[in-house]
Write the structure tokens for this entry.
Amino acid sequence: HVQLQESGPGLVKPSETLSLTCTVSGGYIGSFYWSWIRQPPGKGLESIGYMSFNGITNYNPSLRSRVAISGDTSRNQFSLRLSSVTAADTAVYYCARSNSDYFDYWGQGTLVTVSS
Amino acid sequence: EIVMTQSPATLSVSPGERATLSCRASQSVSSNLAWYQHKRGQPPRLLIYGAFTRATGIPTRFSGSGSGTQFSLTISSLQSEDFAVYFCQQYHNWPFTFGPGTKVDIK
């Protein structure tokens, strides 16, 4: 059974970089596609981007200049970095697995608040 | 970017009743549409993909229909565990986009 778990700071200062890690168990990041999705308070879900099994990345154009997703196959983890954050980046961040389409496994989500 | 909308925002239903939720895309997504169930404090759960294919382990009371721009999720007889938020997602074009959700609560 595939499980994903997000980890990282729950509070980030404006203009700094948000960094999260997703640890995958019961599956291997060398297969499938691995995504980050977020949901700001009171708003809908937003795709941030994904990393493919062979390391190819694709990002939401609205975030492309600030986002990077990378993987560590030795730890079976993948990570999100979002730079120059503002209050608008406050959200619950989810990691999820897909086959470049629908998401069949999700993490529990982690709330990241941007505030000084 | 394809904009997804859902209606109604909230649906109040009695246990055992039928619930029909709607999802609309701003342009055709063919059958590249998924439905999810989301309960507070839990990860979203995939219910339907390909507009009408139930995911593994999903009860037969959940069914999906539609194609192009108009889709529906029907729960034939609501059980207590079905009260949750349901949202749709298109994966026809990147960035994949989600509907705002329909909250199904107890009448």
Observations:
- The interface with chain A takes residues 1, 32, 34, 36, 41-46, 49, 55, 87, 89, 91, 94-101 of chain B (CB under 8 Å).
- Residues 2 and 26 of chain B are 6 Å apart (CA to CA).
